[in-house]
Amino acid sequence: MPGLRSATDAVHTLRFGTASARLGPWAPDREVARLVVSPDATLDGGAVEACVERARSLGYRALVTNALDPREAVPFLAHDFAVRERLHLLVASLHERLPARPSPEIRIDRVRRREEAAVLALDAAAFRPDWRLGTAGLRDALDATPQHQFRATRADDTTTMTGYAITGLAGATGYLQRIATDPRRRREGLGRALVLDCFAYLWRRGASRAFVNTQSDNVAALTLYVSCGFERLPDGLTVLERAL
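Below the sequence we write its predicted C-alpha cells.
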C-alpha cells in the first residue's frame, strides 16, 4: 500500500476523548510512521488499534512510537508492539536554588523561524539516522508542551549555529525536549551552556523540576546531564515499534 500518503506527508492528529496522538513520517524512513502520544492522557487499547489502522490506511509499513514511560507502554505492548530501544530518564530539582548561569563567553539567543533548515542540518550531524528529528519531529518537539523556549549557541564572529535546545514547560514541570551541538565544536562547553540556559528559563517560570531522556549507550550525554544536576530514575523509557 505505499503511495497512498499525500505528497506533503502531512501530520495527522487523532483524538480519543481527552487523549490525542500525532501520526507522521519518521525522519530516517518515510515508509515508517512516527506516533507521538500526548503527555496528558494514556491511550487505551482501542485507541492504539485505531492508530495502527490509520497508519496502515495511509500506506505506512511500520509504526514507531515516541519515548513512553512504563504505564504508557502497557496498551502498546498488548497490541503486538515490541521494544525498539530503551532510554535513560533523568530528573533535576529546580525549586531549591537558582540554577547556575551559562558562561557569558558563549552567545545564546533565540532561534528564528527562517533557521529551521540550519537546525535540521545541525541535528542530522549530531545524531545517528534513527534519532534525527526531521521536519515533523522538530514540530512535535516544539508543540509537545503548552510553552517552550527555542534557543541556539552561535559562533563568536558570525550567526552560524553551533548548538540548539528546545525546552518545554507544562505546569510546574519542564522538559529538555532536545539538545544538540555541532560535533566539530564538542568539548567547548556548548552542551552545558544550553542545559543551564534551559534551567534558567524553567526556574524563571516557576518550574519545580525538569526531565530529560537519552539513549542508553550515549555516555557523553548522560555524563553531561549528571554533571548539571540531573539524577537518573530507576524506570526508564522505551521506544516501541510494530510492523504493519
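Helices lie at 45-57, 70-77, 116-126, 134-143, 190-204, 219-227.
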